Amino acid sequence: MSSRPERRELERELAGMVGRENVLTEEADLLPYSADHFLRGLQHYLPKFKFLPDAVVTPLETSQVSRILRFASLHRIPVIPRGAGTSLAGQLIPVEGGIVLDLKKMNRIEPRVEDRMVVAGPGATYAELNRELERRGYFFPPEPGSAMACTVGGMVSTNASGSGAVKYGATRNYVLSLEVVLAGGEVVRLGRKVAKSASGYSLKDLFVGSEGTLGVITEITLRVEPYPPIRRTTMAVFPSLEGAFEAAMEILGRGITPASLELLDELCLLALNMSGFSLPEGKGALLLRSDGRYREAVEGEMEEMVRACRGKGAETVGVEDEALGRRLWEAREKISASLTKLLPSPETPRLVFQASVDVGLPLSKMLEYVRRVKALMEERGIMGVCFGHVGDGNVHIGSTFVPESPEQVERARRFQEEAIRLALSLGGTLTAEHGVGLWKAPYLEEEHGYALELMRSLKRLLDPQGILNPGKMALDGIPRVALMERWWEEK
Amino acid sequence: MSSRPERRELERELAGMVGRENVLTEEADLLPYSADHFLRGLQHYLPKFKFLPDAVVTPLETSQVSRILRFASLHRIPVIPRGAGTSLAGQLIPVEGGIVLDLKKMNRIEPRVEDRMVVAGPGATYAELNRELERRGYFFPPEPGSAMACTVGGMVSTNASGSGAVKYGATRNYVLSLEVVLAGGEVVRLGRKVAKSASGYSLKDLFVGSEGTLGVITEITLRVEPYPPIRRTTMAVFPSLEGAFEAAMEILGRGITPASLELLDELCLLALNMSGFSLPEGKGALLLRSDGRYREAVEGEMEEMVRACRGKGAETVGVEDEALGRRLWEAREKISASLTKLLPSPETPRLVFQASVDVGLPLSKMLEYVRRVKALMEERGIMGVCFGHVGDGNVHIGSTFVPESPEQVERARRFQEEAIRLALSLGGTLTAEHGVGLWKAPYLEEEHGYALELMRSLKRLLDPQGILNPGKMALDGIPRVALMERWWEEK
């Protein structure tokens, strides 16, 4: 092993592998790669809180990724694979510098709908992939909140999902096979391009959700679903948040699995109405989606759900109006953005930590959890919102604070910690869909106990030098960057 | 590490951990544990082909499993976890002796349908689990061929599935969390009892399908599905096998995902008719199942499928007759047993290697595969049948031979090898649902290449002494027991 080369030498070496036009080393060019979507929202307040990589490389094919990793391994240079940068847990931040592998040019999309699958490069976007598939009558359902921008590689790396997961499951359920490049540059195929296999350990499942810490994913084969031609959306607004939960539990308890079952609290409704929607006023709402191949079944399901909601005193909108139904769905996608409308003046707490609490709970514990979190907010003087995918136990909590106030930041940090620990104490998981990254690493051991030691052993086995996306998921000895704890020192 | 204790000492030690009544060491008692379902069928012809364990222990709880593994680890004694013994690939055969852990008494079933899950011990049977669930309106769908007998622990260990996998997926899709005991006796919880998580490496998925080679599963949390109240079954019999395939591809290509889409060849039909069914004569058949919550959708789907089949010249039975539909389903379950009816005299090849070829293929390669396999059978003088789960690319091939004839055995062995290699050459997997065990271990490297080396590294990491179910899945240095190659020496 030789020591880490200097910037110019690094540039020359990398240019030799991928061409000069695919290597960036100037600070201005590196800056966008210092953050993910989550951190970018903070950098305005934290100009010094940035970790620049030494270089950004845009490989075109697997063999280049392999050469880069062999080289990085030899010199112990960190390598951070990157998709669209939409992650919310700090997964992409180059805390130790190194090489960011920008995979956007490895964006091949090869639909094989006759086999009910699609083969894609990691840099293919979810939106483009689904355009190609929908044209052929199929789709890849996980639909994360970042669906307009995210890449398929990023989705596999974080096991991404969203409001369709209650019916269709998360990304993991669709991954049939992966090509990955290991830390030393070895190219390996995991799984087969078939619908079903019981052959050997399922190594592909180890890589799904591993956040770039075990290898670089260079090709993905996904199962695809027939696109359901009939879709209906309805919103039910309730006089109490409890009523919304009770209706959701009744729907699930009847044996219905809707395409979506989304919860919004009072503040979400208010924010949406301030953004131009005219929803009924209420203390909580459910956004219901039903889809399928047969109109009678889709409408029958929606009718049953509407009946359950009305039984809990809900007012429903969009039942008879498909255009409104589509607009309601847009509303759901705009919750995060709409929340800023709630903040009338610069003195109001104004930084919304986007869904920074992203816990998953057993269904029967959700109402208790949301009640206790709301009480905590009140007690701690935190303004925040609760929404989420109530159909699969996933609760998002966004909280606001004035970033210039150390006292407010500390208060928000403590609240979020309490909200995470409360979920764990109720048998929940600390992240249902956003992943661990930097931000949730400090809590991983509380969830997994000895299993975290096993994860660390696997990490050392596959990446003995620790070059792959260091600092993430509490896997290595690199000091944890707990964002809200460190930023004041950084300023 | 001390050396392996003698039988009496072993018995005393184990009795101290689980009670004398839960330890067997007499040869007559050990004999049933020398084989799985697959090998049991052969032992009549191969009286010497049996590998006795040193002891059989029936633990009652996790802490006992932990003590046994600590002890086994100290003395380097092999440990083979065992469910109902219904495996078809030699997964349970104690090739190096050691302790068989019979998990039948760890059979707790705790339905938590309010959370859409169930918690079960590994020894709970699939049938009993589903009785408990169905009473509450839910079910655990994978439905392997051994559904009447198999245990949930066995299903998780082999990622079992069956004729419902095309719509509902294999066992893996349902596993939320596992408690496992590692080789050294450490008890560890993998995953959380929630519907959705993106927290850390998915170690549970490493254990699903690992055939007892990485640890002993002591508790299983499964997601459950609402039981579909409406079910319809129809059989379509075609004038050609090609017609059956074409209809299946048309059904899938239209975007229908039936609850089952089963293929039967001419010999299967003949065998079923010899067993008392009165099916139309034909060269191939599809058994179609549709299920759901809404009658209109289930019947609409069945109607579309029937139309596709009739378009290829099929005669359909059971469309209007629910009782006949149920009987047709029983017929499918009796294919293996019915095949013996085809063998009129002792001179006829009479040992049916139960579905011993169990490959999975891309959907678009299935017809080519079946055609080429049938040609191979003809060329090699093999009598055999083709059937399978055509909806997910899974083809079973049963072949027959006279076990007393070395020449016939060798011919059958070669044919099966060719059938496996043909599947691999078409992009398939060597086992879609039965697993690897002993029998398919010799071919694993051809499928996985360097990924098999990774599997071996993981095995060494988690079981450095190699005590967990040695000899299976080509993971260790223990000579492969390729059944049909060795048995003549053994006689």
Describe the 3D structure.
- The structure is a homodimer of 491-residue chains.
- The first copy, chain A, has three domains: 227 residues, Uridine Diphospho-n-acetylenolpyruvylglucosamine Reductase, domain 3 (2-Layer Sandwich), CATH 3.30.465; 103 residues, Alpha-Beta Plaits; 92 residues, Alpha-Beta Plaits (2-Layer Sandwich), CATH 3.30.70.
- With 491 residues, chain A is an alpha+beta fold.
- In chain A, a hairpin with a 4-residue loop joins strand 5 and strand 6.
- Chain A contains 18 helices and 19 strands.
- In chain A, strands 12, 13, 14, 15, 16, 17, 18 and 19 form an eight-stranded antiparallel beta sheet that branches.
- In chain A, helix 9 packs across helix 11 and helix 14 runs antiparallel to helix 15.
Structural class of chain A: alpha+beta
Low-confidence stretches of chain A: none
Q: What general form of chain A does the structure show?
A: globular
Oligomer: homodimer
Number of strands of chain A: 19
**Pair with the biggest interface:** A-B, 90 and 91 residues
Q: Hey, roughly how much beta strand do the residues of chain A contain?
A: 15-25%
Which CATH first-tier class of the largest domain in chain A would you pick? Alpha Beta
Rg on CA atoms of chain A, Å: 23 Å
